[in-house]
Design brief:
alpha+beta, globular, binds flavin-adenine dinucleotide, 11 helices
């Protein structure tokens, strides 16, 4: 039992210890603002959760700036391009050349989370893990509350502001009255089977492949760990994908002589686009997946979460210095970037996947678009600058 938990107070109550919640706590700490992070899962669980792995230049710059870049700079893999593969041929999109030297860093989300937790631990401010029955209240007052149970007892955390960083299945967004928000949503008729394998990548850069049998992506997490994705049914059962079937399908779709290794993780992620507007209600501010979801084809989910909390941390710094203009502009500021990422992620998804029941006409359009991106500097630049991230320009 943590002492005095039944009557806690802080400046910012943060719900969720994913990348958004942990980075916000870290940035606030740097501004001298106190926060408490509440998380339903255990530390071991969130450190092992395999998800995103592509960091935009702006994300990398921010992590370095706030003192979290040391291991990422040592272990992260810097890439200056990707390959698009279709109609049996590969076409390189050269990020450096098209975006004035910008690139991406491949560094697993769980590694970012581990670095953030190490920083929280060093500050003596680890999240409260394994809390339950979380709810938020009094959002329209200037002392909102987060209620939860811990170790069988009920607790209340009073604060000035609540940051809802609890992901797509959290409690913060559903706590906003329906009439106060508009949601925009699209479901795609397929999912991704994500695979982590203990084998050196068979490629130096990511390969995005469009194939008549469906999309495939060859990515990586380290020189010893490969990450693959295969388009599958949205409700596919990973057990229907034995290892031999996975390797065979990857070889066909990627048209690559792949090295095999033990598959240590596989899971299905449905593909969805989702935005809630505004990203704020009273003293509750949503950040990351709690406010928006993108299909992972554009590698934007984690980067958007980081971009949101950068804006929120700066707005809270100004708030405690006496001006609330930043908090007032928070939602509009974030949504400009969110919608750009939504469009890019939808565009990449539409261009590269096989749509069930799709007609020859749509397939011809996809191929025409891919040929255009591969052959036109202007079209390739559009892909490149969105992929590496638009930085502070949006
Ligand atoms: C299964 C999955 C696979 C993904 N794969 C990729 C990928 O391959 N490539 C890519 O680019 N992006 C991927 N993404 C997207 C990317 O990982 C997310 O955009 C990113 O995790 C967003 O960070 P976040 O902190 O906003 O949310 P999250 O990482 O979801 O963190 C939210 C946290 O809140 C906690 N929580 C939930 N409910 C409560 C509650 N009631 N109270 C307290 N805590 C709560 C959760 O346990 C979690 O720790 C994936 C996402 C998912 C869900």
């Amino acid at each position: 039992m943590i002492p005095n938990m039944s009557d806690m107070q802080t400046q910012v109550g943060i719900v969720g210890a994913g990348p958004a919640g942990l980075l916000l706590a870290h940035l606030l700490h740097g501004h001298g603002i106190a926060s408490v992070v509440l998380e339903t899962r255990s530390r071991a669980h969130i450190e092992r959760r395999i998800r995103a792995g592509v960091l935009e230049q702006g994300t990398v710059d921010l992590l370095i700036e706030c003192g979290l870049g040391e291991r990422m700079q040592r272990e992260g893999l810097v890439h200056h391009g990707i390959e698009l593969r279709f109609s049996g041929r590969g076409h390189r999109i050269d990020f450096s050349e098209l975006t004035d030297g910008r690139g991406i860093t491949v560094y697993g989300q769980q590694e970012v989370v581990k670095d953030l937790l190490a920083a929280r631990e060093a500050a003596g401010a680890l999240p409260r893990f394994e809390v339950a029955d979380v709810s938020v209240a009094d959002l329209e007052s200037d002392r909102p509350a987060v209620r939860f149970t811990y170790d069988g007892a009920e607790h209340e955390l009073r604060c000035d502001v609540i940051a809802g960083c609890d992901g797509s299945h959290g409690v913060c967004r559903p706590s906003i009255p329906d009439a106060a928000v508009t949601t925009y949503e699209r479901e795609y008729p397929f999912g991704w089977l994500g695979i982590l394998a203990e084998v050196a990548p068979s490629t130096e850069e990511l390969i995005y492949a469009r194939h008549e049998r469906g999309f495939a992506l060859h990515s990586m997490r380290s020189p010893e760990l490969s990450r693959f994705y295969l388009q599958c049914e949205p409700d596919a059962d990973p057990d229907d994908w034995p290892d031999a079937r996975i390797w065979e399908e990857l070889r066909i779709r990627l048209a690559l002589d792949l090295d095999e290794g033990p598959i240590i993780e596989k899971g299905v992620t449905p593909m969805r686009s989702y935005v809630v507007e505004p990203m704020q209600h009273g003293r509750l501010f949503l950040a990351g997946d709690a406010a928006h979801i993108v299909p992972p084809t554009g590698a934007k989910g984690l980067n958007l979460a980081v971009a949101d909390v950068r804006v929120l941390a700066a707005a809270l710094r100004d708030f405690y210095a006496g001006t609330d203009a930043g908090l007032g502009a928070y939602s509009d500021t974030c949504l400009r970037r969110v919608w750009r990422a939504e469009h890019f992620s939808w565009w990449m998804t539409s261009m590269l996947h096989r749509f069930p029941g799709g007609h020859g006409f749509e397939e011809k359009l996809q191929l025409s678009q891919l040929e255009y991106v591969a052959g036109s500097r202007a079209a390739a630049t559009t892909l490149a600058e969105n992929y590496v991230g638009l930085g502070q320009r949006i």
